[in-house]
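Field reference: sequence -> structure
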Amino acid sequence: MRLPKDETGQTLVLVALCMTLLLAFMGLAIDVGLLFRARRNAQTAADAAAIAAALDYKYNSSATSARTAGKAASSANGVTDGTGGATVSINIPPSVGPFAGESGFIEAIVVDPSPTIFMNMLTHKSSLNVGARAVAGTGSTDGCIWTLAKSGTDVSLTGSGAITATNCDIYDDSSNTSTALTLTGSGSITAQEIGIVGGYKETGSGSISPTPVTGIAPAADPLAGLTAPPIPTGTCTSCDKSFSGSSNNTLSPGTYHSISNTGSGTLTLTAGNYIINGDLKNTGSGGLILGAGNYTIGGDFTTTGSGALTIGSGLYIVGGDLSLTGSGSLTGGSITFYTEGSTTVTGSGNMNLTAPTSGTYNGVLFFQSRTDSSAFKLTGSGGDKIQGILYAPDSPLTLTGSGSMNVSLDMITDSMTVTGSGSIKDTNYSVVVNPNSVLSKLALVE
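Structure field:
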């Protein structure tokens, strides 16, 4: 018997089988590609949710508000909690990972079903869950001194004094090729790092450590997004309050034209909100006690006498000059000054000023208007305690120390001049004292 030798049609069968296999692999590749795309989208939504929740929690200290903000950010990036089977979970603090249980960190977990096409034919799975996770937390900036002027001399130290900031950085934005930073005399400038857009000059026996890095890119204003406070107004005619005797006096919250105390008695403004359209002055030997609250002073806020000044917690808006130069003690806790004139603070007596640790102006001790180029002068002595952020981006700052002056200040100014024979030791406020201040930075850590 002879076997048939005709093989016609075999190639067609093999091609059909191969095409089926190739189509199956192509379908798998398409589904995998769609899953990778869904994974990227889920990660974007998780990152946005973690950052938004952490930012909201930083300023509002409300877990409920933070979760709402986080889910809204996830929805804006394509994954809405409860829609299409998607879930968005915001955990405060994180539930797993190296930051589990750590305060200051927030975890976002996003799960979003991704539809399948060819897998559905083979496995009858119409979708696969795609998950992503992100953790955001508050980190601290390394800088504690920013001078923002683009020309001239931004940082200048003269005399035998010293400025020491060993655990933080100095940024000098001046492009002057030789005198963006100058050291004259036997003093010293010491920091963790010193970066200068232009160059520097040393004259005398002083020292700069470490050697500055020149030619850096200008540092941006780190608080450019900080909003100036609204300024309330009030009406008051013939509401001048003037005290000149030796007796103690008290005023209640309200609207006044001006308030002055020139006598030897103590004037107390009880806790509450005040609008003073003109000046607030304490120029005698008596004390001035400002109760906790918010104060709007349209004119000058001046203390020049020998009496003690006690400042209660709150926001102090000064439309004129702020001049706290009396010889008595100067004490204020959880306070923020917003000024639209020059600022002069002298601690010839005991000075203890600290910024708030919560709220919109968390960490801000002084905020001089961005459009105000009036001088800012701060003079301290040994034993003073000054903690917070000094933000005067358009103002030249003069620091004068007569002894060993220890501060925890983050300073953002147009320029800085340090004079005198005293030493000023500055620790990074936003690291050492208050890592949740407005200068702290939010970052994705997972």
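Note: The mean pLDDT is 85.
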